[in-house]
Design brief:
about 675 residues; 11-stranded mixed beta sheet
Length: about 675
């Protein structure tokens, strides 16, 4: 059943029957237990190349045929993966060139997943062969819902093949060596290139401190992944162009941080896929109690992955309980339903798990799964999964519905790459994605819908665009932001905005003229504070503490909203606003905490109720309210991210989908979720 044709929200996960071929009783239990768990979809074959092709040119599809038949009889879907993430051991031994070379120039032997070379002609040919076999055998199978290409693409290879491809990529981008030398300012430290062969991969044994080179290397690595993924897709799409294609994106985090993966420009990658999917593993209990912090972090990433294509996505991997981490803490009772319903509320059309059945051994044997090593379906985790699956069946008409927002947060992977490379102000202190999440938190707490977008997104449909720390900016983007404000939009910018171009070169007049026009200011000195050092600003009659960064600004025709209180720049402007064309632009010169962000957006928005959905009367900062809608119906998700009973109120009665009862007052048990609907007239 094609994903686009199945009217159910997907529920299931990674299924690895190749690990259980000697346990036929387990394979039969799987189907019976999937029915109990209300599972309708399995992801098959992610790490199965060794089982599918145990020796070169020798294929075994019998076991996979049987799985397809069992899932079809169950009325389920198969998301079929291409197995390129891990080649068979025999291939690594027979063709060592397929193994990745690290940035110290060392060629690996058979190794961990995603340790193949993207440039290897042999590996590309072998991947095409196995993908063609899968496409020929299963491309028309009625149970096939979607192709899952590889798994968690990541990393880079530094072998001679990749170096040659890097040089060709640069020649295509810049045409001449003079263009490279100019873009990278190689006259600094006297590193001009006079032959393409001189430009080595930026590994530990070669030049790797040039900022322009480092930025282009990140672009090249993203292009490598996209090019390899495109090649993987060709036989799949040729076999059946109606089957959609995805690959699973990632997030990363520790010590309370959880942000999108930093090393790949998923904004560009998403344009080569039919559906965005991602692997969601927030640290729900990192501080031993559920709080709104992980909820905000996860919601931000959901809204980003929705925003990449402005349409529903799939959570390809998640855990019904603990994850494979240094502290493998179990989800508290109720958190599974809360966290998975949050996925759907923000635009997910599927919740899948890694994995269906817990592995018997190896590196993720303690990672949470629907079925644990006891094979017990009466335990709490399984029962919570089954309850969620049952609820999804009542929510099937939510599938395909959209979520609409007036507010956009602009995220740029290229800005992140360039800022991280810049060491002068502390690489790890920039926390670009984390600062976007701090701005996002205000809107999450006040139930104002947000879409997270990338720089090439059409901004005309948004009433407010938030673009703090947009460090790298092209002339074209600066002009688009200017025209956005001229046409009536509100724009928020901040310190570190628009001060380098696409080559990570400083703008010679310190700031782009479009930004000077829009914000009505010129930039003054930039001050980086020591750890623990602070300043203060006065804003809206209150005093707020600054930390990390203070940007001095010089108003031209902007209105000063806040001033610094301390140090040599006491009395200097810190926060400004400027009416330009039909719109307005706000500039925040300092890094400030959440209390300032709240006061600031209260002023930017004016009447906050005009920005919230009209079905809300009273909000609650620990109850997240999100909505999706199609042409006929609106679906409203209310989610209590606290350990106490919470209440909130609608402005008109809505119908609870599970009970069929209508109400204006919502009461939610600790970590409780209720979903409502109303017709759109």
């Amino acid at each position: 059943m094609n994903f686009n044709l199945d009217d159910r929200i997907l529920h299931g996960g990674d299924y690895n029957p190749e690990q259980w071929q000697d346990y036929p009783n387990i394979l039969q239990d799987d189907i019976d237990q999937m029915k109990l768990a209300h599972v309708n979809t399995v992801t098959l074959g992610v790490f199965a190349w060794g089982a599918l092709e145990p020796a070169e040119g020798v294929y075994d599809f019998i076991w996979m045929d049987q799985v397809f038949e069992r899932i079809q009889r169950m009325g389920g879907n198969v998301i079929l993966a291409t197995p390129s993430a891990v080649p068979p051991v025999w291939m690594s031994e027979e063709y060592p060139e397929i193994n990745r070379t690290d940035d110290h120039g060392q060629r690996h032997t058979h190794s961990f997943r995603q340790m193949f070379c993207f440039s290897s002609p042999i590996y590309r040919a072998k991947v095409r062969e196995i993908n063609q076999q899968l496409a020929n055998r299963y491309g028309q199978h009625p149970a096939l819902a979607m192709w899952h290409v590889s798994n968690e693409y990541s990393g880079a290879c530094y072998c001679p093949l990749c170096e040659a491809k890097w040089q060709r990529w640069l020649e295509h981008r810049y045409h001449t060596l003079a263009g490279v030398n100019e873009a990278w300012v190689t006259t600094f430290w006297g590193s001009q290139y006079s032959a393409w062969s001189q430009i080595k991969v930026p590994g530990q044994l070669n030049e790797h401190k040039n900022h322009g080179m480092a930025l282009d290397w990140q672009r090249f690595c993203t292009d490598q992944l996209i090019d390899f993924c495109d090649a993987e897709q060709q036989p799949l799409r040729a076999a059946n162009p109606t089957i959609p294609v995805t690959t699973n994106f990632m997030a990363e985090g520790n010590d309370g941080h959880y942000i999108p993966l930093q090393g790949i420009d998923y904004g560009r990658f998403a344009q080569h896929l039919d559906v965005v999917s991602w692997d969601s593993y927030p640290q729900w209990d990192f501080d031993q109690s559920v709080s709104t912090i992980p909820a905000v972090q996860a919601a931000f990433i959901h809204d980003l992955y929705y925003g990449l294509k402005q349409k529903p996505f799939i959570v390809m991997e998640s855990s019904p309980s603990r994850v494979n981490s240094p502290i493998a803490k179990a989800k508290r009772p109720g958190i599974h339903l809360l966290s998975t319903m949050q996925q759907v509320a923000h635009g997910a059309d599927g919740t899948l798990y890694f994995q269906w059945r817990q592995s018997r051994g190896n590196s993720e044997k303690f990672h949470g799964a629907v079925i644990d090593h006891t094979n017990d379906t009466s335990n709490r985790v399984f029962q919570e999964v089954a309850h969620y699956g049952q609820m999804l069946e009542k929510l099937s008409r939510v599938k395909g519905s959209k979520h609409h927002a007036q507010v956009a947060i602009l995220l740029s992977w290229e800005s992140q790459w360039a800022m991280y490379r810049e060491a002068a102000f502390g690489r790890n202190r920039k926390e670009y994605f984390q600062m976007l999440q701090k701005h996002y938190q205000y809107f999450w707490e006040h139930d104002i819908p947000v879409t997270v977008v990338t720089p090439d997104t059409d901004l005309s449909d948004f009433a407010l665009v938030i673009a703090p720390m947009l460090y790298l900016m092209t002339d074209a983007l600066a002009e688009r932001l200017k025209q956005y404000v001229v046409a009536g939009g509100k724009l928020v910018g901040s310190y570190m905005m628009g001060i380098v171009d696409e080559h990570d070169q400083l703008i010679q007049d310190q700031w782009r003229p479009q930004l000077s026009d829009v914000f009505g200011i010129e930039l003054g000195e930039f001050d980086s504070l020591y750890l623990g050092e602070t300043n203060e600003i006065t804003f809206a009659g209150q005093t707020f503490v600054t930390h990390d960064f203070d940007q001095l600004v010089k108003p031209v025709d902007a209105k000063v909203l806040g001033k610094y209180n301390c140090d040599f720049y006491a009395g200097s402007p810190a926060v400004t606003s400027h009416r330009f064309g039909q719109g307005q632009a706000f500039y925040v010169g300092a890094r400030l905490s959440s209390d300032f962000i709240t006061a600031f957006y209260d002023q930017v928005l004016g009447n906050r109720n005009k920005w919230r959905p009209d079905f809300l009367q009273d909000g609650n900062p620990v109850v997240s309210v999100q909505s999706r809608e199609n042409e006929q119906e609106r679906f409203v998700f209310t989610m209590n991210f606290s350990s106490t009973v919470q209440r909130m109120q609608f402005s008109r009665p809505l119908t609870e989908i599970e009970t069929g009862e209508s109400s204006q007052l919502v009461e939610l048990v600790p970590y409780g979720v209720k979903v409502y609907s109303e017709p759109i007239t």
